[in-house]
Amino acid sequence: MFSVSLCLCVKEKPVKAIVLFGSPGSGKGTQAKMLTECLGVPHISTGDMLRDSIRHGDQLGTAVVARMQSGALVSDEVVNRLVEERISRPEAGSGFVLDGYPRTLAQAERLCEWLDGRGIREVVIHLAVDYNVIIARLTGRRQCPRCGTLYNIGSHPPQVDGACDLDGEKLVIRDDDSESVIRERLAAYERQTHPVLQFFLKAGRRVVEVDASYDPPSAVFQKVSQALEPR
Ligand SMILES: [Zn+2]
After folding, report:
1. Cα separation of 9 and 13, whole Å?
2. 51 counts as catalytic
3. CA distance 89 to 180
4. Which of 6, 43, 65, 83 is deepest in the core (most CB within 10 A)?
């Protein structure tokens, strides 16, 4: 998917903390995976972490579950502690990719303090997309109601139009893929992310915008890799 030489050259870059932002449909998960495989550093996703923490039933996890069950948002303090515990581990010693964090200004401030206190340099990468392209991509999703297999009429169509390759079941459009829901998800992402990105910019942090609308993942990854190079 990407060349070995590129991996080797990325490995030598001094950036240790990669803070990854990407709107729904930007392929953020794919880029996170490519980065972590290439750099050999952990992918720290707050969504995964909260699920792990809950599954292991640790003290913090239990507190998180209690809050979530009461309908409250998980507090910045709890999320900060979870993330700091994770990025302090030895496996994160040569770097890490943060995904889904920071989500609020308080989290962003805390992260910057943490990084500065340890002399760790970060780069914030924002996978930006053209909304119309994303809507076309996301609304192309089709799913088999019987076996759950996902298709995309643009990039991964079934062999027979509208039917599942595995069981022939008629494919359906999932509710959350309808255009108004997608527009709302994109708007929610924008509302939440914009102030955090602005915070990084105003603080003079390195923020790199990467256009992820049209290019295949390998080409987006090339651009992401360039963003990791020293200025
Ligand atoms: Zn099926």
Report:
1. 7
2. no
3. 42
4. 83
